[in-house]
Amino acid sequence: MELLKVYLSPINEADFKVSVNGSRVGQAEANSRLPFWQEKINWLITVIKSLEAIRFRPEDFQRSGEQDWMVQVDLLVQDRKAFHPYFLTNIGKALYQSLFPPGSKVEKVLQNAINLAQNNGTQLHTQLEIAADILGSTRLPDYPWELMHDDRGFLTQHQVTFSRYITYDAAPPKLPSMEQVNVLLISSAASDPENALEKLPQQEQLAVRRGLGIAEKEGHIRLVELKPPTLKALRDYLTEHRNETAPHVIHFDGHGLFGKCCNNTLDNGQLCRTIHKGIKINNCQRCHTSLPEPQGYLVFEDETGKPNYVSAKEVGILLQQNSFTDHSKQLRGVALVVLSACQSGLALTGTSVFNGVAQSLIAHRTPAVVAMQYSVSVLGATAFSEQFYRSLGQKDPLAMAVSQSREAMGTEGKQWYRPVLYLRWQDNEGGQLFAAPTPVIPTRIKLKPSVFVPSASLVITALVFGVRLLGILQSSELKIFDQMMRLRPDEGKDPRILVVTISEEDLQYQKDKGIKGSGSLSDSALHQLLEKLQTHQPRVIGLDIIRDFPVSNDQPELAKKLQNNDNFIAICVGNNLTTGDKGFEPPPEVPTERLGFADVVVDDDNILRRHLWGATFNSKTACETEVSLSLKLALYYLAKKGIKPETTHSGDLLLGKTRLQRLQARAGGYQNLHNDGYQMLLNYHSRNIARQVSLRNILENSFDPSWVKDRIVIIGVTARSVKDDFYTPYSLNEQQSDQIMRGVFVQAQMVSQITSAALDGRPLLGVLPWWGDVFYIWLWSLAGGVFGAVMLQRLPWRDRKIILLITSIGIIFIISYGICFFLLIHGYWLPFLPSTIAFLATGIITFIYIHQLPYKRC
Prior knowledge:
- This protein is of the alpha/beta class.
- Strand 2 and strand 3 form a beta hairpin.
- Mean pLDDT is 86; it is low at 440-445 and 854-858.
């Protein structure tokens, strides 16, 4: 499990500083503003009431301007009769943007940590560390941070789990891990109709027992139920059970409440003890005296079975007092308290952040607490408890057990975000209750080939994949990828595209004709060119020429064309990801919606293998459009075919049945790829991508009009005096000028890739997930082990000729290469080099091992 520490410290009542630190992804900090503030009004209580509610009731939201604000931020529908269908998502986005401001360094560290966890196939444990000595009304722990949403989904539903760490002036508790965990179950059936607390069924008790069934049989966990479920019985049990029988986990199943309790002494000498639910009431409804600050309560039973409201402070003191001992060898203290009770993790207003039950337990040195931030249904609590103890019984750390239990509550609805985990446990960041198994030093034995080969293949696979992750094989893998691209059958020209070229002869032609102007294509020549092309009804025209200057005053008609022709798309250039150049502005006459960027990304060896089709990082550059020229042209063309783009929940782009997926930082042979924006592998169509016609031929009408009709026309410069050259997988030697591809043809390749995929089903290039690569490498490693064992066992030693071995290995490599080549043609890039290395290494090791075995070979 990867760990990311997030430190929150207040600046004033509305602003705070966030600092992030991950051991392997760096650190960063930023100043931010708390969410749900508007014009010096903090609407946090409104948000919490919305999260607490099962359905919208207008009478619960009567604060001045409250419902207006809820409509404004999409928490409430316009007619104010129900919550907005996406109000959870909207709350989550506000929380995320506050804690991880978009584009900030802290967000970058978070995303790097998430990518690292995904690559390692584990969860990201995000620990929110919040100081107890808050400033003024800045109550950072009260915010429902577990709801954060990063536009792709709720983080807790995508490999991220949260815990909270409240800091105060005391050393964090340090308890030893256990071989066997003792669980004390407290099930209180007390009800209180006056506070709308109905009698609870026994469903959760049964769920806890189901969850612990296997662990109890295996002896990992011992479950005891407290009878009767009273505060006195709990105090007696803690006093009488020490060492091996002491409870490590206390599970409270019953009602919880956040409110105020009157502690006034009545005339008869007894305490009033009237409970007032919520925080609005200031005077006791029974004796009318002033009420103290609100806090959390657990509803135990008293000796008669009636409700006994035990405050957060009382529970915390009880557990802390029973953790003291005078015996150095005595096991001390409860390690975990699970509060399956409504509002047991809620803390609002007041001068202390410790007025909730969970928070009070943490303040009284309980290392870990799982609680419910808001009210929870019986079904939700039952599903949570069963899965939590099932995970705990498998010796999962608490952070992972809580994450899995949230999922069991259902990803839809309003239950999954209610559990919260507090951890304040020294040297135990994930909350592991169980001690690590004592390592056994194996005796040195000889394994049979049937055991050795699978074992060796797993070890070799891990080593090869580790070397690959370090990027050592990247350069070689890319060269093999290029070779396969060159060997693919040429698919010929794309009939949908026409490229209008401007060569050295066309530059001279403009001079000879007296056509004056700036750049490689003068205003007059461009005006004539567009008129000639538009006459023959092209579907869309793309200008792959930089025009960062206005149209000259003597060409007013051209300015109108550039401004009004809805099928004309121009380019600009944003920040170059490779060189850091500032870029070029677009033609001032062309509106933003008809602009596409011409930025490309090339690899370290100057080869262009990737297609950059979206760039969210262009917003503060000379080129503010977020869509590439190629995608703009393709979308315009496809729209006329009835194919409209759709964005998926994960940020991918759907074009009919074709999905444009964002290339991950580790993809295929790439390791630690700079995958800014939206990139995918470029599946080149052909060395000669499209029909070409020169500027001169267009202006002199020396072309077939059918070449233009309903085509995607791309205008670009091919003159060598204008630098716009790229090396591609087709380039054998970058020192030779004939190995380059001009930029206009690169744009044509990219347009062709998108349109051919959407209309013809031509595959886009994809890669296997990391585990798919591992599995494929392991298969070849296993095959290498079997090959080594068979070649050694089946042939007499005198006949085992080196030529035979080389020939056999050569045939197998041809088969492996053929599989990778075949799948590349059909859209999948497989790891040929790592699988080859794994095959050879396992085969050689197996060969040597079997030859040295002390028993007779058959």
